[in-house]
Amino acid sequence: MSSPNQSARRFTATTLGTARIGPHRECKRAVEGYWADRVTAAGLDTVAADLRRRSWEELTAAGLDSIPVNTFSYYDHMLDTAVMLDALPPRVAAIEDPLDRYFAAARGTADIVPLEMTKWFDTNYHYLVPEISSETTFTLHPDKVLAEVAQAHGTGIAARPVVIGPITFLALAKAVGDGPAPITRIDDLVPLYAELLDRLADAGVEWVQFDEPALVTDVVGGLPDLAGSVYARLSGVTRRPAILVATYFGDPGDSLAALARTAVEGIAVDFVEGAVETVVAIPELSEKLVVAGVVDGRNIWRTDLDRALATLGTLLGSAGDLAVSTSCSTLHVPYSLAEEDLLDPNLRGWLAFASEKFGEVATLSRALRLGREAETEAFDACRAALAMRGTDNRLRDNAVRDRLAAISDADVTRGDAAIRITEQNLRLGLPALPTTTIGSYPQTAAIRKARAALRSRAIDRDEYLRRMRTEIADVVALQEKIGLDVLVHGEPERNDMVQYFAEQLDGFFATDNGWVQSYGTRCVRPPILFGDVSRRAPMTVDWITYAQSLTDKPVKGMLTGPVTILAWSFVRDDQPVSESASQIALAIRDETVDLERTGVGIIQVDEPALRELLPLRDADKQAYLDWAVRAFRLATSGIADTTQVHTHLCYSEFGEVIGAIAALDADVTSIEAARSHMEVLDDLNAAGFANGVGPGVYDIHSPRVPDAGEIERLLSSALDAVDVQRLWVNPDCGLKTRDTEEVVASLTNMVAAARTVRASL
Ligand code: GLN
Ligand code: ZN
C-alpha cells in the first residue's frame, strides 16, 4: 500500500503523553491564582510554557526520540478538543475572552452551568463531556496545537502533536436537545481533521498522534468499521504528516485490523492489557510502525524488563518497525520517585513513576536494537529489585489468606431482608421518613488548620484529637438542633475517605508527593496497595462511640467500602484485583463487627466507586460486578440482622450496575436523585430492589439552598414509587465541600419538608 509518508522517520522510543499539573503542582497553583485574580493571563502562560519546556527536555534527556506535545492542558484535553472543533456549548459563547470562556465551560460561573464531568474510561481522571446538539456547527480552530508545536520547534525538539481523534471525541460526547447520538456527526468532523493535517504539514510536523482509546470499548456499535473508514479517509489526505493512531486501556480487537488496512503509518497498542495475539494475527502490520506500550502508563510498578523485552521480541516479526512506549499517557501516575524521601528503600525499588518509566522505555528501546548486553546494568538492577519484591514477607499474610479460603456463601449472606427490616425498626424506633445525612459535614478552616499544624508538628497528636472531638461535638449538637433522626459524626478526622483507611491498613503505603490530576486543578494522592491487607486495630470505633456518647439519637458508623478503596488506590499487579478486594473486605468486616460490639446500630459502607471499575468491554462486565458485589457483602455480612447496613452511591444513572446495586442487599441505599427527579426509584424497583432507599432530595454540588416546598414535592413523587416504610430523606452526597450556613439552611428545610409529609400520611 503506498502512502505519502512512508519516508517519515520512524522513531524508536516515546510516551503517549505526560502529566501537566507540574512536578510540584505549579500549573494547579497558577490556574487557581488566575481564577482568584492573583495571576494574570500572561503570568499563567509563562508558567505553562515553562512546564512544557521542562517536560520536553526531560523526555529528550531520558532518550526518547519522538516527543508528545499538545498533551498540556489548563484543565482538560477533551475540553481543549471541543475548543479546537468550536463545540463549546452556546451558553458560554457570550464570554468574550477565550480563556475565561474556556474556564466557564469547565467550572461554570454564577449563572452558567458547567459541562458535566465524567470518568475517562476506567481511570480516576475525569474529563468534561462535550455537548453536541443539532445546532452544533463544527469548525476548526487549531490555535492551541499549532502554538505548542511552534514552541516545541523553537526549542528544537522532535515534536509529535497529540490530538483526540474524531471517533473518541464523538463517542465520549453527549447529545443535548433532541439531537441524535454525537457519533452520527462523524462525517462533519473528518474534513476538519483533514484540514488539521494540512495545517500541521504546513507547520513542518512529521508525525501526528490521534488518540482513539474508544476503540478498546463497546461504547458505540460498529467501531471497527468506523475506524477503518475514518482513517482510510484521513490517511488518504495527500499533504499530511505521518499518522499514529493511539489505542490504549485495552485490546482494540477487530479495530486494529481495520486500522492496519488503512494507509496510516503507525498504530500504538497497549500491551500491558494483552493484545499481543491480536497484533501477531494481522499481516498488514508488517508495513506499519507499531508503537508498543509495554511500560504501564497508569500503574506505578517497575517494569519487568526481561518480560517486556520478550514481548517486544514476539512482536518483532509482525511489525514493520517497533517503537517502545508507555502504554498510555503518564497523566495517571505521579511525576517522580525522586520526591519520595521517606519511602521504604525496598518498596522504592519496586516502583516506577513517570520519570522512571521514561528511563525504562529508553532502556528497552536500546536493548531491542543493540541487544540486552547494551543495558546489562539496568536489567541486573531490575532483576534484583523484582527478586526482592518476590520474597518480601509483607506480600503474603497467611492468616489473611487462610481466612479468605474458609469463606463460604453463608459468610456473604444476611438473613431475609424483610425480617431484618422489621427487627431493625423495632430496635431503632425511627419515625416514618427518617432524616439523615451522608456522612461528612463542612471541612471547616479549623479542621484544615489543625491538620496542617499536626503535619508541621506545631501541635501533638493529643491536641489534634482534642480538636477533632470538638468538631464532632459541634456537628452532633448542630444535627440535634436541626432535628435530624439519624446522626453522623461528620468525618472531620478524614483527610480523604480512602486515604484515611489506607493509612491504617497493613498492605498499603502513602506517598509524600505522589499527586495525580483527578480533574481540572484537583489532584489526589492515591495510596499504593502493595501487599496482603489486614487491619492493625479498630479504625473508626473511638470516633463513633464518642459521637454516640453525646446523643440519644442513633449515630451511624461510617466506613468506605472495599471496591471504592480499591478503585482510588494504585493496586498490586501480582494478583487479581478481585483477591485484593476480598482482603480489604475482610478488614472492613472486622471494623463493622467492632462497631456493632460497642452498640452501634447503623453502619454505612460507602461505595461511590462501584460503577467506576466497570470493565470497558461488555463481555467482562458481569464477572466484575459479581466480585464487586461479593466483596461488599463480605464486608457487611459479619453483623447481626438487627444492625442496619446503609450504603451510599454517588450517581443516578445506574444503567449497567442497577442489578448489582440491588444485589448489594444493603438495608438502606442512599443515591443521587435530586437532578434526575427520582427516576432512579423506578429503575431500582424494576431491578427488584425492595429494601430502604434514600434518593437525594437536593443537590449538594450547588450552593443553592432548596426550599421546603420543593423537597416536599420530591418526597411526594418518591412516595408514588416506593412504600412509605422504605423511604429515607437525605441530601444526595456528603456535605464536606459546602459551608456551614448553607448546610444549616438546607437541612432545616429538608427536616421541615419530611415533617410536613409525615404529618400528611
Ligand atoms: N461518607 C462520605 C461523605 O459524606 C461519602 C462521600 C462520597 O459519596 N463520595 O463525604
Ligand atoms: Zn456521594
From TrEMBL:
Domain Cobalamin-independent methionine synthase MetE N-terminal: 13-316
ATP-binding in keyword set: no
A single GO molecular function term of this UniProt record: 5-methyltetrahydropteroyltriglutamate-homocysteine S-methyltransferase activity
Cofactor(s), by name: Zn(2+)
Cofactor binding note of this UniProt entry: Binds 1 zinc ion per subunit.
Residue numbers binding L-homocysteine: I438, G439, S440, E491, D606
EC number in record: 2.1.1.14
Entry binding sites for Zn(2+): H648, C650, E672, C733
Sites where the protein binds L-methionine: I438, G439, S440, E491, D606
Stretches assigned to the Cobalamin-independent methionine synthase MetE C-terminal/archaeal domain: 433-755
Reactions catalysed according to its record: 5-methyltetrahydropteroyltri-L-glutamate + L-homocysteine = tetrahydropteroyltri-L-glutamate + L-methionine
Keywords recorded for this protein, A-Z: Amino-acid biosynthesis, Metal-binding, Methionine biosynthesis, Methyltransferase, Repeat, Transferase, Zinc
NCBIfam families reported for this sequence: met_syn_B12ind (TIGR01371), PRK05222.1 (NF003556)
Function recorded in the entry: Catalyzes the transfer of a methyl group from 5-methyltetrahydrofolate to homocysteine resulting in methionine formation.
Recorded family membership: Belongs to the vitamin-B12 independent methionine synthase family.
The protein's name: 5-methyltetrahydropteroyltriglutamate--homocysteine methyltransferase
Protein's organism: Gordonia hankookensis
Gene transcribed to yield this protein: metE
